[in-house]
Protein: 3-isopropylmalate dehydrogenase
Amino acid sequence: MKVCVLAGDGIGPEIVAEAVRVLEALRSDGLKIEMEPALLGGCAVDAAGVPYPEATQKLAREADAVLLGAVGGPQWDALPRPQRPERGLLGIRKDLQLFANLRPAILYPELANASTLKPEVVSGLDILIVRELTGDIYFGEPRGIEVRDGQRVGWNTMIYSEAEIRRIGKVAFEAARKRNKRVCSVDKMNVLETTQLWRDVMIELSANYPDVELSHMLVDNAAMQLVKAPKQFDVMVTGNMFGDILSDEASMLTGSIGMLPSASLDANNKGLYEPSHGSAPDIAGKGVANPLATILSAAMMLRYSFNNEAAAQRVETAVKKVLAQGYRTGDIWEEGTRRVGTREMGDAVLAAL
Ligand code: NAD
Ligand code: IPM
Ligand code: MN
Structure:
């Protein structure tokens, strides 16, 4: 299997290095994997003038999977929109047609006190957020900023086709079948036509999944319910923008955004694997970032793209073990546990493997 490795910006190189070490350890135990680095995001802008250079595109297209850290940072925030690092990320997602973003929010028992919510609210939490990733207001045309009647206006287009809704719905229903057989579809149908269509298509699709219970929730209530009683959810399926926001919210149920991995898949399980968090410019270069979301993303890569459940579980078990041993980066640290940096956390995972 060929994996294109995109460290990206900010803490990206630090956290990806630890995931790569884990994969190298598995390789020395027989995992067939080749890793090739390339540039995406701000580092690509600096080196090649664009956030998703052709060389990266070629490598990513040829690869069986892509491992990514994060992109972006304040030094690139003033650039014209097409050159922004985030455009590189959106570009690769669209180019590889990675429409299905899986963001599992699982609370490891050892982190029950790291969450800002009461332990009894989050203990045993296991939610899968299925976020549509290549449509919605993120990609809708037309869009822009222009002067109308003497003042600037900005506008975007929120749009979904029924085919786009159906294919992400299928992913959610299929995933629910392997879990607790419940799908909650999140929309804003009381206001937005695009999400009325979303709800209609979900209801039509549910006829093919009589064994899965479908419910609907408006996104504002869903945001509230996620902190009030998150364990009511099994699979949540939603559009690109609502999914972006709800998955960051869900990450804090698990203790830290540094714990939330993600897989972005196409129709054939070719995938891009990245933590759900960003480049964390505030802690970049300090060696303190939590690498576990990235290591757990590598585990998702083993599961979905390598079809190697045993290797995926081996990595996940190692992560559970280091948490049980008390290793904590700053974001999940609490009294009585052992505070470590990014590299030491990686060392601990390697030892546990
Ligand atoms: P962020 O996720 O980078 O950071 C939010 C907060 O969480 C910060 O306090 C940060 O220190 C902390 N944090 C994030 N990851 C952590 C980790 N692994 N360990 C410990 N703490 C961690 O979000 P932001 O500050 O809004 O965005 C910063 C930049 O990242 C922006 O340029 C944004 O566009 C970009 N971004 C990129 C991605 C991506 O590449 N997938 C995702 C989100 C944001
Ligand atoms: C994420 C990020 C991206 C998104 C940005 C950086 C384009 O927030 O992966 O969640 O909004 O999808
Ligand atoms: Mn996000």
Q: What stands out?
A: The CA atoms of residues 121 and 229 lie 6 Å apart. The pocket of 3-isopropylmalic acid (ligand 2) is lined by residues 72, 86, 89-90, 244, 276 (CB under 6 Å). The chain has twelve helices and 14 strands. Residues 115-254 form a domain with the Isopropylmalate Dehydrogenase fold (CATH 3.40.718.10).
